[in-house]
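To assess whether the prediction recovers the assembly geometry, we first specified each molecular entity separately, as shown.
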Amino acid sequence: MIAELGHFALILAFVVALVQGIVPMAGAARGHGPSMKLADTAAVLQFLLVAGAFAALVHAYVTSDFSLVNVYGNSHSLKPMLYKVTGVWGNHEGSLLLWALMLTLFGAMVALFGRNLPDGFRARALAVQGLVGVGFLAFMIFTSNPFARIDPAPLEGNGLNPILQDPGLAFHPPFLYAGYVGISIAFSFAVAALIEGRVPPSWARWVRPWTLAAWSALTIGISGGSYWAYYELGWGGFWFWDPVENASLMPWLAATALLHSAIVVEKRDTLKSWTILLAILAFSLSLLGTFLVRSGVLTSVHAFASDPTRGFFILIFLLAVTGGALTLYAIRAPALKAGGLFQTVSRESSLVLNNLLLATATATVLLGTLYPLILDVLGGAKVSVGPPYYNATFMPIMVPLILALGIGPLLPWKRGSLLTALAKVKLVAALAVLGGIAIVLATTDAPVLAVLGFVLAFFLGGAVLVELAQRVQLAKLGPMGAFRRLVTLPRGAMGMSLAHFGMAVSVIGIAAATGFSQEHLGVMKAGDTVEIAGYSLTFQGVEDVPGPNYTATRGRFEVEGVGTLSPETRKFRAPPMETTEAAIHSTPIGDLYVVVGEKTGPGYATRIYWKPFVMWIWAGGIMMAFGGLVSLSDRRLRVGAPVRRAAAQAQPAE
Amino acid sequence: MTPRKRRRLTIAIAGLACLGAAAGLVLYSLGDQLVFFLSPTDVVAKAPPPSQRIRIGGLVEQGSVKRSDDGKTIEFHVTDLTTSVSVTYHGILPALFREGQGVVAEGNRQPDGSVLAAEVLAKHDETYMPKEVVEALKASGRWKEGDPLPAGPHPGTETGQKP
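The predicted structure of the complete assembly is given in tokenized form:
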């Protein structure tokens, strides 16, 4: 019964989305107030209906209602409660419902917190948001109904893919989806601006908080996914250039570019049509990611569906959204007037360079991801594009990007001097190179790329500190005065420094973990000892341990000065499958990573890795996301348009 | 030239330079860094040079897995039920590696016709096979989708004896 209510709520949401997509748009065109007001109500109602449907599906999972095909296919009564709940989005239909939930949540938030937006603009943006909702809800209702029943109901479910039974899965998809879908707001705002035919500087201020929130969520989602792959797949790798990972990286790169170009629109009233284009492309890449992941054209953990009609539907939807928006862009963009001028060497130019490089990087990733598919469709050879391709294309683009990242913030707006900026980072650059030389001297066989990574990261970190010191006038005011200024610094500036510094931290992690890892592979008998990176590990054998829905073979390693590490190999019953659970001893300077495999001859196959500074990769990711949130709390964005300031402050805090 | 035009020209040149550099990198990489997927029959027929990285996909032939005494080197045969190719791998196999199950190995073909694998992929459960393996098996004409996987030494392969 509850499932039918959920299904009904979903259909109602679809109808509400249709109304939200059409009536306010027509109302805004005619200047009809009540029709425009309808957008707010519809957006909130649509969210409540989808939330109801989502709650109904969660209820079905929690009570193990196997009369639903979806629950039967992806759950099991013996599964721990946490995984019953996260199992809701561990499958095709449920993850789409989560997506729709996020989409409508963002729409409702625009309706509730976007009071400072002009009525006509808000109505149009919410209408576009409604139309995107129509597409997604139709997709669910017509091809992927999460509430389909089976009769008679089976007694037991098939269970969830064991490698998805992990706390990481509980948090990684919701963040990723919040990011993907948050970009839809930038898209709706861009399309609404195109319909109105003008992009005022305040447009950038309206779109920025949503893009920042989406970008931060996407950053956390990607970092989380990478960390999950690191500890769950048992190989100690953190990024595989898997098409599914690329599907989340591309919108991230585009959203990063969008964040930066929106600054130029806001401060200097120029680069408008490029920024609008980026907003359209960023959301198109999110949809493309969904298509790649959900259509089953890729073989991966994430490809739940392999029904061609679904892929076809998403492809049509993608073409309609992207094609429609780009057509509108082609008609309206030439009318967008550029404002402020700037010189070739200026903050604006460095942001343009940042955008060019990010766009190029996105294009190379896109090409690498799609090339095997295109070749396959054309009947050519079956190929895969792996890390060597990305190392040769993506990495070289990151080098100038990181350099620009260090120097750009030191350039003034409008007109600057490269020499003055370079003089400020002279010392930092020299120290970075010295640091690189020190690493080469201190280690044997240091890989060139890893050392280059270190040098770039040192330079970037140093340049961020130089910029911060200059901003707080450390030289003039001394440490105490500078600290007082630091506390009162605009949050936007603080967020920027944090995010850029986070990038440097991540690059150090990536360079160290890829260039200086140590590994020991081999069969170990009880009593054998292995020395790695200054640790001494003694294998003490294995024991069988029962888990809630699996049996584990647990190895015991005594590590001198650390204690016992107990990696496991888990044999799940439903579905029958094995996973490896690495035992990881994390320290700030590196991780000791131990995996025990199957019985081989007299002992057990073991993998022991030393991954230096690997935690820094995700620490940097968290810093970047946190920088985004700090920037989000900037007064300038909270208060909204200046004319509304008095009214906004008079309202009670939300 | 007005400042606005000059700025546009600079941006256009920078954009073209970026695109050009990227196109160069991509063309270089797509020529060299691609990994081709081949079935065992393809590996024998096409005999890719040792410099070409390939993925070979098929079933692990029953009874073909041999381990060296220290357990670090594993030799097994990958078959598409018509042809089988010997694969050597140094390292620890993934947990799902089983005789008779689907496998994809990535590496280079050696002059003696065997494949030295740098990586063995088996990211799937007991009932699921990688798409590429399914297609390789279908292409060999000895297996249709929905058929049970042949147990015991695979028919039609010459080298399926127990070590």
